[in-house]
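Appendix B. One record, verbatim.
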Amino acid sequence: QVQLVESGGGLVQAGGSLRLSCAASGRTFSRSAMGWFRQAPGKEREFVATISWSGVSRRYADSVKGRFTISRDNAKNTVYLQMNSLKPEDTAVYYCNTAERTWYWGQGTQVTVSS
């Protein structure tokens, strides 16, 4: 069973930056489109960004387009989310999974943006 471990969250002021990492165990990572998702208190988990297995194709939610960048390193079984110009509304627990959300969820990493 693939395990996902997210890290890199923290408390940052509005306008700041964070880089999230998600390390995956298992051999299927390099063949899987991956994604980042987030869940704010009292809200449903929502799509943030996805990246194809090759890294060529990327897609973003409108709310983060131009501020966030998803990338991956298949040699390290890791997917990243660079978050710039953070806003208080970006506050959430951030999770990674396959783009189709087919693996078990990890614990996520908390991102808190203060105004």
